[in-house]
Every structure is written in structure tokens, then in C-alpha cells.
Amino acid sequence: MKTIISSITKIAALTLALQNTTAQDVIPESKEAFDQRMQWFNDSQFGLFIHYGVYSNLAGEWKGEPVERYAEWIQRWGNITPDEYTPLAADFNPEQLDADLWVKTAKEAGMKYMVITTKHHEGVCLWDSAVTEYDIGEATTFDRDILGELKAACDKYGIKFGTYYSIIDWHHPSQRAEKALSQTTNNDKAGYITYMKAQLQELIERYDPAIMWFDGDWVKWWTMEDGIDLYNYLRELSPEMIINNRVAKRAAFKKDYGTPENSTPGASLDHFWEACWTINHSWGYKKSDQKWKSHTELIQKQIDINTKGGNLLLNIGPKSDGSWPEASFGQLKTMGAWNAAHQDAVYSTENANLPIQAWGKLAWSKTSNAESGELFAYIFDWPSDEKLLIKLILADTITASAYEGQPLPTTTQKNGIEIDLSSITPNEYATVVRVKYNGLRKLKSEGPDLKLAGNELILQASDANYQKRKLIKPSDDFIAFSFRPKVEANWALNVPAPSKYQVKMLYSCIGHTKKTKAVITAGSAKIESWLEPTPGLDAYNLLELGIIELDQVGAIQAKLSFQDMARHSHYQIKSIIFVPVSE
Ligand code: FHN
Description:
Bound molecules: ligand FHN
Number of helices: 12
CATH superfamily of the largest domain: Glycosidases
Number of domains: 3
CATH topology of the largest domain: TIM Barrel
Strand content: 25-35%
Number of strands: 28
Structural class: alpha+beta
CATH architecture of the largest domain: Alpha-Beta Barrel
Helix content: 10-25%
Strand order of the largest sheet: 7-6-5-4-1-9-8
Distance between the termini: 39 Å
Shape: globular
């Protein structure tokens, strides 16, 4: 009891000290100090996300039946009552948890930090907290300090240790699991905030996390002011610790970094960011979830994210005993080998804001600028004629080589730089070519500036599913629809948070003889708009269709179809963008 009183006294004193910071202000920090604090994060490129808790015991099944959606949400989607769920903590027994193996595997994959769920929405704490008995100390028979073991292993291998903490807490009396998506008020908000602050102080004082990774900010009773107050509280407690933007309201709050989820922004962003992705489908371990991403998809995803200036935070969901699903080791091993063989192209590059290329990605070394430097071309789709055209850029001088240094012949074309790849063999996952230059110039870029904020959900043409016979797909850069009744494309859309979204579509169309309507559905939501013709198929228009509400968390189906498609009309769709609307 003494510990609890001292924690609450400390919090009260600290909260008073912050009174002079008005609710809407974050603690002042110069750009230099902020950039310095974010430096290691920005250089990391790749981190490990771990979803581990009592839900891991259930492996996505309840009473012998698989439960839909994410396994860590099983209490909600399995309609498990608190009386049924709370005692399950007694079975939590990470006896096979080998912190050294976890962290060594992460390091060998090329990961520079890790973030583990210390308290997910279920509310159980993976450390022995003084302010609750629903934790590893009292609610389980397990008595090791697994967070301490992981922190020690991170220190041993030079990996930064981070902690995930959910604002949502279905065990705390102030909230209820069955109202997970509809709870508009918290029936003891002040008490719960004091509880959270005490727990966060424990995590900081015991494990000194380099990152505090919040989640659950979307609940209606949590406000931007609450988040900024909590941000300031933590900045005082641990001035060098990095805090993600879900501490407040992610659609509008960008400090310290943005957190797109199971989605990669279509272009670079004007703030630090990290995209978190599952390695299969569910965050928490789900026995039936065999939707493992291929080694190629994972490597190319990391390259896509890194070349746009972000980090990939890749999730593993350990089994109840603390062991990892076998498939995860293979994926991380392959990623580690590729990262190790391309160190310059992974850890010494940054976003170059260069024109999008249909065959892969572009970045430049950190020391480059328009006058001189070195480009890295990451080739996903090997050109059939073995001639790589880097479109829309020219340079005064060009010297191209394979990643390992073998010279490659180049020629300057009207619309870009062409590199002869015939003397080298493509890498199974992605081939890197170096291009040293002087006097780099960008030709006019295609399409309108999307002005992305980073938390948009983007459906790219390359990720669409559709009946190929009905559509022409000349490249991954767009889907071409010609006059075909009932033609449609669909995507799996991962919704990170229930919210209203402004729906936009980047398209071009010609041959309009009469108006055509685009119809977009996402889960049960639907929106439609007439399409105006564009000056040409290469001249893209950003259409705003309007606002829809997505009241789900997790994967739903999105579909694009057309009504009254005009004869002899042709459409090219680059992307559909869902922009979260801050409440
Ligand atoms: O509801 C959580 C979900 O369980 C998981 O933790 C992801 C990972 O960031 N975040 C929320 C869904 O957006």
C-alpha cells in the first residue's frame, strides 16, 4: 500500500508542475534537440514488435472454435465475459521464453529495436505492478521478470528496448470489453488516468524503455488534451524516451512519430514515422493463422518503407509458452541475410523524394544531394529486356554498378537514365544497383501531389485482386479498366482504428461519351461519385468522393466498381486513399 501512496503522491506533484503547460501545448523542444533525440530511431530502419499476453494462451480459439479477427481481441469477438476471462491469467506460463534467443534472432534479422506489449487491451500486466493484482506477479503462477530479462538481452546485443501500453483496458472497472468499439465515456476517467500514470512510471523506473508505444487512442473518451497531458508527463519522467503519436489522437498528433498500421504510405512524409505490420495476419498468436507473408514480400516491404523514410516494425506473436511460431524464424533469417548483404543500401540511405518507378524503389545515400551523390535502385521486377529505365531523372554525369561494384553500362534517354543489367544476375528478393552522379535533375513528375500525412489507408493498384481477363494491367502502377459491365477490383483493407475517413481516388479517364459513376465499398460502408474525364490517361486527377465511417478494427474488404460505364471509355486507377478525419 505504501508503494501505491508514494506513486500517487509523485504523480500529483508532477501533474501540478505541469499545470503551467496549457492543455493544448506539448513541452517545448527545439528542432535540434528533437532531431537529436530521434536520431537512433530514424537510423534504425527495422524493429521487432511482440504481441504477447494471456490471449496468447487461447491461440485465437475459444471453447474449441476459432474466433474471427485478431487473436488478441478474442475477449471481445469471442464474447468472453470478465468472469470467464480473468481467471485465464493463471494459465499464463512463459516457461519457454528465451529472451536471449528472441533478441539475438532480432539482431541477426537486422532489427535495431524491439517493442513488446506490456499491457494490451485485456489489461493484464507483463510486470509485477504495485497498482494492480492483475499482473504476472499475482494473477499467474509464473515468477520471472520477463521484461527485465528482455531488457537485459537488449542491452547485451545493443538493441533498444521499447514497451507497448494500451490506453484501452478491458479489465479496469472503468471500461468494458463488450463495449470495445462503442464505449463513448469512461466511468472513472480521472481514476484510470492516475492508474495509467502510476503504471507508466513503474515501466520507466524499472526498464528504462527507449520507446513508449501507445495504442487504443481511438476510444471516444480519450481526447487530444488527455494525450498531450500524458505526453508531457512522460517527457518529464524520461526526457530521452521516444513516444509514438497514439499517446494522443493519431489522426492529428504527429509527435514523436506517426504509426501507419498494416499500411505503407504512398510517398514520403513530413515527419518521423514507422509502419507496423503483421508477419502473418493476427498480431497475437493465432493457431489457425497461416497467412504468412512471403520472404520476398517482407524484404520488399522493408525496402518500400525505408526508401520512403520510415521504419518497419514487424510483429511476431509468440505462443503461450513463450516460444515463437517456427515460420517466423525462417522469415527473419532470410530478411537478416538480405540486410546483411546490403548494409549500405539499408542503413546508410534515406528518402530521396524521387519519382515513383514501376519496377521498384529509389533512395540515396545520407551524404547525397542534387549536386552529387549515390542513388540506390532496388529492383523488384527484373526488366524482360534487361534494360532498367530510371524514369523522370537526368544527371550531368552517371556511373552505374552492381551493389558489389561491377560496372554497368548506362545511357541517358529523353525521359530518364537507362542501365544495362545483362551482365548481372538478379537477386531472388530484390536486386540493388548503385548510381553515382553529379548534377541530378528531376523531370516533371506525374500526377498531383498527394500531400500525405502518413496515417492514410492506401489501396494501391499493385495490391488489387480482380479477374485479369476483364482488365488490362500494364504495370503495378495502375489498374486499367476498359468498357466492361460489372468490372470490379477488390482489396483487403486493414483498419487500424474505427474512425471517419475522407475517401479519395487517384484516376485518369478518356473516351467519355457519358458520365460514369465510381462506387467504393469498405465493409458495410459505401460511397460513390461521378467521374469527370481527364486530359489524358497520363494526367491523373485526385477525386474526393466524400466521408465514410469505418467502425471496425482489423481486415475488411474494399471494392471498386463502376456504374453506367461509358462505351469506349478507358480508366486508369492508381490508388484509393482513406484519410482519417480527426473527430
Ligand atoms: O487493437 C490493436 C491491435 O490489437 C494491435 O495491437 C494493433 C497493433 O498496432 N493496434 C490496434 C489495432 O489498430
